[in-house]
Write a structure and sequence with these properties.
about 475 residues, alpha/beta, 4 domains, five-stranded mixed sheet, 16 helices, 14 strands, about 40% helix, globular, binds uracil
Length: about 475
């Protein structure tokens, strides 16, 4: 019998080193006891043989490493043994990772999925509360993960909240960031974490403002935000009342639905500010991983004109503002020629993180796919709900997809008003970077003039709808 002592429940490196040696020595999975720290590994208490040292090796696919790196954080005590058994089978059958029907692979895959879900929930549901610490501020959050994910998730919080001093307390372990270094401490209890602060009031009023009774789907809401997390979410205290009042409010909304386009802005600065703050931490699709920051919309909240671009480019990603690079400069010039004041328009993007491919040191723009546009509509829809502009203009195909919820052909859609569900008037035109890419100078000039004409017509429509 071999005994492997791992230093912690999430000791992936310890498991990997031991498993490699054991698999090379062809040790049978049934002959290994996996133990964490000094806890009793089996009932017989024998010291067991240490794992053999590995020499040479065999390679496993990246897919297995990724799977193991997630599954190993599961709470299931059998995870080390299951992963080792899978590793042994891969040694003899490298194609096994493709066999989605294999029962062992399916079981390990289910562990990995549960862990990834838990990681996502922690990212979505950690809510920091402000506490004073001498002259300084610290933000403290309480979270109860289902699996051993806290260390694995620490990097995410460091990147997202690099400028804050914060602690995340969990029953097993606490992690602390002082602005420079991450440290660990013992587990804590809920009573160790503070219970509400001034930021919470703002967050609650934002949540209540964006809660749309007509879109209430309690099933979907519970699966996205399971009840067990509600205790730690300030906004959750509002949910029962909001749900109870939803039918009444929906009926009132129908009765008072505007017959004409919505009449201007809601009282919304706080809601917009809270939405922007939340979007800064967006992880709804993988694009946040490579981007410098979320580039949120900007402009007056009572702007009658609302422009949607595609996604931030290289310069926007660095500056944190939409349309400031070459396409933005062309856009500004075209607006000026059309007599539309950009400072009176709200400008945002369908996708709020820069999608690119690295070529050497250069970041080359890549078009966002339908899934990324859909994930990011979460923010766009709320920007539209808060601002309630009279006119919404989609610049290019990605923006049109985001505005209309389906793909359209620009040449067939441009130049005419479209009635949007919100009551606003929608327009589709080309994206300024399309004009920058046209190789033929005469064609580029012609297309630019058409773009300016459309902007002029849209600007006049905006004035007429006031
Ligand atoms: N292109 C866009 O669509 N948006 C920007 O913000 C910049 C370039």
């Amino acid at each position: 019998m071999h005994r492997v002592v791992l230093i912690a429940p999430d000791d992936f490196e310890g498991w990997r080193d031991a498993a490699r040696g054991l698999a090379m020595a062809r040790v049978d999975p049934a002959d290994i006891v996996w133990q964490i720290g000094d806890s009793p590994g089996d009932l017989f208490g024998d010291a067991g043989l240490p794992p053999p040292r590995s020499s040479g090796g065999f390679s496993v696919s990246r897919a297995f490493i990724d799977l193991a790196q997630s599954a190993l954080f599961h709470r299931d005590p059998e995870r080390f043994a299951l992963l080792y058994a899978l590793l042994c089978r891969l040694r003899d059958r490298p194609g096994l990772m493709e066999d989605k029907a294999d029962p062992l692979l399916r079981r390990v895959d289910a562990l990995a999925k549960a862990v990834r879900r838990d990681i996502h929930k922690m990212r979505a549901f950690v809510r920091f509360r402000e506490v004073g610490e001498g002259d300084a501020l610290r933000f403290v959050a309480w979270f109860e993960p289902e699996h051993h994910i806290v260390r694995a998730n620490a990097g995410f919080f460091v990147r997202r909240f690099a400028a804050m001093r914060w602690s995340i307390l969990t029953p097993e372990l606490s992690i602390h960031w002082d602005g420079e270094a991450l440290s660990e401490g013992p587990g804590a209890t809920r009573q160790d974490a503070p219970d509400g602060d001034p930021v919470e009031a703002l967050w609650k009023s934002y949540y209540a403002a964006i809660f749309n009774p007509a879109r209430l789907k309690t099933g979907a809401m519970l699966s996205e935000m399971p009840k067990k997390y509600w205790r730690n979410l300030p906004e959750a205290a509002l949910i029962p009342d909001l749900v109870a009042g939803a039918q009444r409010r929906e009926a009132a909304m129908i009765a008072t639905a505007p017959k004409a386009p919505p009449a201007g802005p809601t009282n919304s600065a706080a809601a917009w500010g809270a939405l922007r703050t939340e979007a800064m931490r967006c992880t709804r699709c993988p694009l946040h991983q490579g981007a410098t920051q979320t580039v949120f919309g900007e402009g007056p909240l009572n702007a009658p004109l609302f422009f949607i671009g595609e996604q931030p480019g290289d310069q926007e990603d660095l500056a944190g503002r939409p349309f400031v690079g070459p396409a933005g400069q062309l856009f500004d010039a075209a607006l000026a020629e059309a007599g539309v004041d950009r400072t009176r328009a709200y400008v945002t993007n369908a996708v709020k993180h820069f999608k690119y491919e690295l070529r050497g040191k250069r970041r080359i723009h890549q078009t966002p796919d339908a899934g990324e546009v859909q994930a990011c509509r979460w923010w766009l829809t709320q920007e539209l709900d808060i601002l309630r502009p009279r006119l919404v203009v989609a610049l290019g195909a990605t923006a049109a997809r985001a505005m209309l919820g389906k793909a359209v052909t620009i040449s067939r859609t441009r130049g005419q008003p479209i009635a949007l569900d919100s009551g606003a008037e929608g327009w589709v035109t080309v994206h300024p970077s399309y004009l920058l890419r046209l190789p033929d100078a005469a064609k580029a000039a012609e297309e630019r003039a058409r773009f300016v004409d459309e902007l002029r017509m849209i600007g006049e429509r905006a004035k007429a709808l006031v």
